[in-house]
Amino acid sequence: MLALDQVDAYYGKARALEQVSVAIAAGEIVCLVGRNGAGKTTILRTLMGLLPCARGRRMLDGVDVTALRPHQISLGGVAYVPEDRQVFPNLTVDENLAIAGVAHRTGYWTRTRIYELFPLLQEREQSKGLSLSGGEQQMLAIARAVMTNPRILMLDEPCEGLAPLIVRDVRDAIVAINRRGVAVLLVEQKIAIPLQIGNRIYVIDHGKVGWQGRTEDFRRERVAIEQRLTV
Ligand SMILES: Nc1ncnc2c1ncn2[C@@H]1O[C@H](COP(=O)(O)OP(=O)(O)OP(=O)(O)O)[C@@H](O)[C@H]1O
Ligand SMILES: [Mg+2]
User: Fold this and answer.
1) What structural domains does the chain harbor?
2) 68 phi and psi, to 5 degrees?
3) Average of pLDDT values for 151-162?
4) What local confidence, expressed as pLDDT, does residue 103 receive?
Protein backbone atom coordinates (compact mmCIF):
# COMPACT_ATOMS: atom_id res chain seq x y z
CA MET A 1 0.00 0.00 0.00
CA LEU A 2 2.64 2.52 1.09
CA ALA A 3 6.29 2.41 0.12
CA LEU A 4 9.55 4.19 -0.40
CA ASP A 5 11.43 3.02 -3.46
CA GLN A 6 15.21 3.65 -3.45
CA VAL A 7 14.84 6.92 -1.58
CA ASP A 8 17.54 9.39 -0.54
CA ALA A 9 16.52 12.15 1.88
CA TYR A 10 18.44 15.07 3.32
CA TYR A 11 18.37 17.53 6.19
CA GLY A 12 20.08 20.49 4.55
CA LYS A 13 23.26 19.04 3.09
CA ALA A 14 23.36 16.05 5.40
CA ARG A 15 22.06 12.84 3.87
CA ALA A 16 19.81 11.03 6.35
CA LEU A 17 18.53 8.24 4.06
CA GLU A 18 20.40 6.44 1.29
CA GLN A 19 18.63 4.17 -1.20
CA VAL A 20 15.97 3.20 1.29
CA SER A 21 13.23 0.86 0.12
CA VAL A 22 10.51 -0.04 2.62
CA ALA A 23 6.93 -1.19 2.03
CA ILE A 24 3.80 -1.85 4.06
CA ALA A 25 1.14 -4.14 2.68
CA ALA A 26 -2.49 -4.41 3.77
CA GLY A 27 -3.01 -6.09 7.13
CA GLU A 28 0.64 -6.14 8.18
CA ILE A 29 2.47 -5.02 11.28
CA VAL A 30 5.87 -3.89 10.02
CA CYS A 31 8.54 -2.74 12.46
CA LEU A 32 11.53 -0.46 11.97
CA VAL A 33 14.28 -0.98 14.52
CA GLY A 34 17.79 0.40 14.83
CA ARG A 35 20.00 2.49 17.01
CA ASN A 36 19.72 6.15 17.90
CA GLY A 37 20.01 8.38 14.83
CA ALA A 38 19.75 5.47 12.36
CA GLY A 39 17.01 7.17 10.34
CA LYS A 40 13.79 5.52 11.59
CA THR A 41 11.89 8.75 12.26
CA THR A 42 13.17 10.16 8.97
CA ILE A 43 11.62 7.19 7.13
CA LEU A 44 8.20 7.90 8.71
CA ARG A 45 8.51 11.61 7.92
CA THR A 46 9.45 10.83 4.32
CA LEU A 47 6.57 8.37 3.93
CA MET A 48 4.21 11.06 5.24
CA GLY A 49 5.54 13.63 2.77
CA LEU A 50 6.99 15.85 5.51
CA LEU A 51 10.45 15.40 4.01
CA PRO A 52 10.99 15.32 0.23
CA CYS A 53 12.56 12.41 -1.61
CA ALA A 54 15.77 13.78 -3.10
CA ARG A 55 15.99 10.58 -5.15
CA GLY A 56 13.61 7.67 -5.58
CA ARG A 57 9.85 7.54 -5.23
CA ARG A 58 7.09 7.44 -2.66
CA MET A 59 4.25 5.13 -3.66
CA LEU A 60 0.68 4.78 -2.38
CA ASP A 61 -1.48 1.97 -3.78
CA GLY A 62 0.94 1.56 -6.66
CA VAL A 63 0.63 5.23 -7.63
CA ASP A 64 3.64 7.56 -7.59
CA VAL A 65 2.86 10.12 -4.85
CA THR A 66 6.38 11.54 -4.59
CA ALA A 67 5.08 15.05 -5.24
CA LEU A 68 2.08 14.93 -2.90
CA ARG A 69 1.87 17.02 0.28
CA PRO A 70 1.38 15.58 3.79
CA HIS A 71 -2.35 16.44 3.94
CA GLN A 72 -2.87 14.62 0.65
CA ILE A 73 -1.07 11.55 1.97
CA SER A 74 -3.23 11.79 5.08
CA LEU A 75 -6.42 11.89 3.01
CA GLY A 76 -5.14 8.74 1.31
CA GLY A 77 -5.63 6.99 4.65
CA VAL A 78 -2.22 7.34 6.29
CA ALA A 79 -2.03 8.46 9.94
CA TYR A 80 1.17 9.38 11.75
CA VAL A 81 1.74 9.61 15.50
CA PRO A 82 5.05 11.41 16.05
CA GLU A 83 7.28 10.71 19.00
CA ASP A 84 6.22 13.83 20.91
CA ARG A 85 2.58 12.70 21.26
CA GLN A 86 0.72 15.73 20.05
CA VAL A 87 -2.51 16.16 21.98
CA PHE A 88 -4.31 19.42 22.70
CA PRO A 89 -3.34 20.25 26.30
CA ASN A 90 -6.32 22.51 27.02
CA LEU A 91 -8.98 20.25 25.57
CA THR A 92 -10.48 17.28 27.36
CA VAL A 93 -9.86 13.72 26.21
CA ASP A 94 -13.36 13.69 24.72
CA GLU A 95 -12.81 16.98 22.88
CA ASN A 96 -9.43 15.78 21.58
CA LEU A 97 -11.17 12.75 20.09
CA ALA A 98 -14.12 14.74 18.71
CA ILE A 99 -11.79 17.06 16.81
CA ALA A 100 -9.71 14.23 15.41
CA GLY A 101 -12.78 12.57 13.90
CA VAL A 102 -13.93 15.68 12.02
CA ALA A 103 -13.43 15.94 8.26
CA HIS A 104 -11.98 12.50 7.88
CA ARG A 105 -12.98 9.13 6.61
CA THR A 106 -15.86 7.55 8.46
CA GLY A 107 -15.59 3.88 9.26
CA TYR A 108 -15.37 1.36 12.06
CA TRP A 109 -13.66 3.67 14.56
CA THR A 110 -15.93 5.92 16.59
CA ARG A 111 -15.45 7.43 20.03
CA THR A 112 -17.40 4.53 21.56
CA ARG A 113 -15.10 1.96 19.98
CA ILE A 114 -12.02 3.98 20.90
CA TYR A 115 -13.17 3.95 24.53
CA GLU A 116 -13.63 0.18 24.34
CA LEU A 117 -10.06 -0.04 23.06
CA PHE A 118 -8.68 2.30 25.73
CA PRO A 119 -10.84 2.00 28.87
CA LEU A 120 -8.31 4.18 30.72
CA LEU A 121 -9.17 7.05 28.38
CA GLN A 122 -12.87 6.66 29.08
CA GLU A 123 -12.14 7.03 32.79
CA ARG A 124 -10.34 10.31 31.98
CA GLU A 125 -12.93 11.46 29.41
CA GLN A 126 -13.39 14.90 31.00
CA SER A 127 -9.73 15.46 31.96
CA LYS A 128 -7.63 17.96 30.05
CA GLY A 129 -4.78 16.73 27.87
CA LEU A 130 -2.17 18.36 30.07
CA SER A 131 -3.30 16.47 33.19
CA LEU A 132 -2.80 13.04 31.60
CA SER A 133 0.09 10.72 32.46
CA GLY A 134 2.65 9.91 29.78
CA GLY A 135 0.92 6.61 29.06
CA GLU A 136 -2.52 8.22 28.83
CA GLN A 137 -1.15 10.89 26.48
CA GLN A 138 0.33 8.20 24.27
CA MET A 139 -3.01 6.35 24.23
CA LEU A 140 -4.80 9.59 23.35
CA ALA A 141 -2.32 10.37 20.58
CA ILE A 142 -2.90 6.89 19.09
CA ALA A 143 -6.65 7.21 19.64
CA ARG A 144 -6.72 10.53 17.77
CA ALA A 145 -4.93 8.96 14.82
CA VAL A 146 -7.27 5.95 14.82
CA MET A 147 -10.33 8.26 14.88
CA THR A 148 -9.39 9.27 11.33
CA ASN A 149 -10.09 5.66 10.27
CA PRO A 150 -6.70 5.22 8.59
CA ARG A 151 -5.71 2.28 6.44
CA ILE A 152 -2.13 2.67 7.62
CA LEU A 153 -1.08 3.78 11.09
CA MET A 154 2.52 4.90 11.63
CA LEU A 155 3.71 5.04 15.23
CA ASP A 156 7.06 6.46 16.35
CA GLU A 157 8.31 4.78 19.54
CA PRO A 158 4.91 4.66 21.23
CA CYS A 159 6.23 2.67 24.19
CA GLU A 160 9.25 4.85 24.89
CA GLY A 161 9.45 5.87 28.55
CA LEU A 162 6.27 4.07 29.62
CA ALA A 163 5.90 1.72 32.62
CA PRO A 164 5.83 -2.01 31.73
CA LEU A 165 2.11 -2.42 32.46
CA ILE A 166 1.25 0.53 30.21
CA VAL A 167 3.61 -0.78 27.52
CA ARG A 168 1.56 -4.00 27.56
CA ASP A 169 -1.71 -2.05 27.17
CA VAL A 170 -0.33 0.01 24.28
CA ARG A 171 1.07 -3.10 22.61
CA ASP A 172 -2.26 -4.94 22.95
CA ALA A 173 -4.13 -1.92 21.58
CA ILE A 174 -1.84 -1.86 18.52
CA VAL A 175 -2.61 -5.54 17.90
CA ALA A 176 -6.36 -4.91 18.34
CA ILE A 177 -6.26 -1.97 15.89
CA ASN A 178 -4.40 -4.14 13.38
CA ARG A 179 -6.97 -6.94 13.75
CA ARG A 180 -9.58 -4.44 12.52
CA GLY A 181 -7.71 -4.21 9.23
CA VAL A 182 -5.36 -1.29 9.87
CA ALA A 183 -1.81 -1.86 8.64
CA VAL A 184 0.74 -0.69 11.21
CA LEU A 185 4.25 0.68 10.71
CA LEU A 186 5.86 0.70 14.13
CA VAL A 187 9.19 2.29 15.02
CA GLU A 188 10.93 0.93 18.08
CA GLN A 189 14.55 1.36 19.11
CA LYS A 190 14.54 -1.99 20.89
CA ILE A 191 13.65 -5.31 19.36
CA ALA A 192 11.43 -6.75 22.15
CA ILE A 193 8.02 -5.55 20.95
CA PRO A 194 8.71 -6.11 17.23
CA LEU A 195 9.59 -9.71 18.10
CA GLN A 196 6.26 -10.07 19.89
CA ILE A 197 3.90 -8.47 17.38
CA GLY A 198 5.74 -7.73 14.11
CA ASN A 199 5.10 -9.70 10.92
CA ARG A 200 8.20 -8.20 9.32
CA ILE A 201 11.20 -6.23 10.51
CA TYR A 202 13.53 -3.71 8.91
CA VAL A 203 16.79 -2.98 10.71
CA ILE A 204 17.80 0.58 9.87
CA ASP A 205 21.51 1.33 10.09
CA HIS A 206 23.24 4.60 9.20
CA GLY A 207 20.42 5.71 6.93
CA LYS A 208 20.18 2.42 5.06
CA VAL A 209 18.21 -0.78 5.35
CA GLY A 210 20.73 -3.10 7.04
CA TRP A 211 18.49 -6.16 7.18
CA GLN A 212 14.90 -6.96 6.33
CA GLY A 213 12.77 -10.02 6.57
CA ARG A 214 10.10 -11.91 8.41
CA THR A 215 10.15 -11.86 12.19
CA GLU A 216 10.71 -15.61 12.40
CA ASP A 217 13.77 -15.22 10.14
CA PHE A 218 15.06 -12.42 12.35
CA ARG A 219 14.73 -14.74 15.34
CA ARG A 220 16.68 -17.46 13.56
CA GLU A 221 19.40 -15.14 12.23
CA ARG A 222 19.49 -12.88 15.27
CA VAL A 223 23.06 -13.63 16.36
CA ALA A 224 24.48 -12.99 12.89
CA ILE A 225 22.40 -9.82 12.44
CA GLU A 226 23.51 -8.47 15.79
CA GLN A 227 27.16 -9.15 15.02
CA ARG A 228 26.84 -6.89 12.02
CA LEU A 229 24.31 -4.27 13.17
CA THR A 230 23.23 -2.65 16.40
CA VAL A 231 19.67 -3.73 17.13
N1 LIG B 1 15.73 18.19 11.94
C2 LIG B 1 16.94 17.66 11.67
N3 LIG B 1 17.93 18.42 11.17
C4 LIG B 1 19.13 17.89 10.88
N5 LIG B 1 19.46 16.60 11.05
C6 LIG B 1 18.51 15.79 11.55
C7 LIG B 1 17.21 16.27 11.88
N8 LIG B 1 16.48 15.23 12.35
C9 LIG B 1 17.31 14.16 12.31
N10 LIG B 1 18.51 14.48 11.83
C11 LIG B 1 19.64 13.56 11.61
O12 LIG B 1 19.23 12.55 10.71
C13 LIG B 1 19.70 11.27 11.12
C14 LIG B 1 18.54 10.32 11.33
O15 LIG B 1 17.73 10.81 12.40
P16 LIG B 1 16.37 10.13 12.84
O17 LIG B 1 15.71 11.07 13.77
O18 LIG B 1 15.63 9.70 11.65
O19 LIG B 1 16.90 8.84 13.62
P20 LIG B 1 16.09 7.78 14.50
O21 LIG B 1 16.47 6.44 13.99
O22 LIG B 1 14.65 8.13 14.53
O23 LIG B 1 16.75 7.97 15.95
P24 LIG B 1 16.09 7.86 17.43
O25 LIG B 1 16.04 6.41 17.73
O26 LIG B 1 17.05 8.59 18.29
O27 LIG B 1 14.74 8.51 17.37
C28 LIG B 1 20.52 11.51 12.38
O29 LIG B 1 21.88 11.61 11.99
C30 LIG B 1 20.02 12.84 12.88
O31 LIG B 1 21.03 13.53 13.58
MG1 LIG C 1 13.38 8.68 16.01
Assistant:
1) 2-86+150-228 (3.40.50.300)
2) -75, 155
3) 96
4) 66
Report the predicted TM-score, pTM, of the whole model to 2 decimal places.
0.95
For residue 97, report the distance from its CA to the centre of ligand 1, in Å.
Answer: 30
Pocket of ligand 1 (CB under 6 A): 11, 14, 16, 34, 36-42, 189
Burial (0-12, 13-18, 19+ Cβ within 10 Å), 51: buried
Of 12, 67, 72, the closest CA to residue 42 belongs to 12
What mean pLDDT value characterizes the chain?
95
Closest residue CA from atom 16 of ligand 1: 39
C-alpha of residue 223 to centroid of ligand 1, in Å: 26
Query: Closest residue (by CA) to atom 26 of ligand 1?
Result: 36
| Per-residue pLDDT tens digits for 77-121 | 999 999 988 899 999 999 999 988 776 778 899 999 999 999 999
Give me ligand 2 centre to Cα 72, in Å: 23
Give me the residues paired with residue 153 across strands: 79, 184
Buried b (16+ CB within 10 A) or exposed e, 181-214: ebbbbbbbbebebbbebbbbbbbbbebebbbbee
Residue list, CB under 5 A from ion ligand 2: 41
| Closest atom of ligand 1 to CA, residue 187 | 22
Give distance in angstroms: CA of 39 to centre of ligand 2: 7
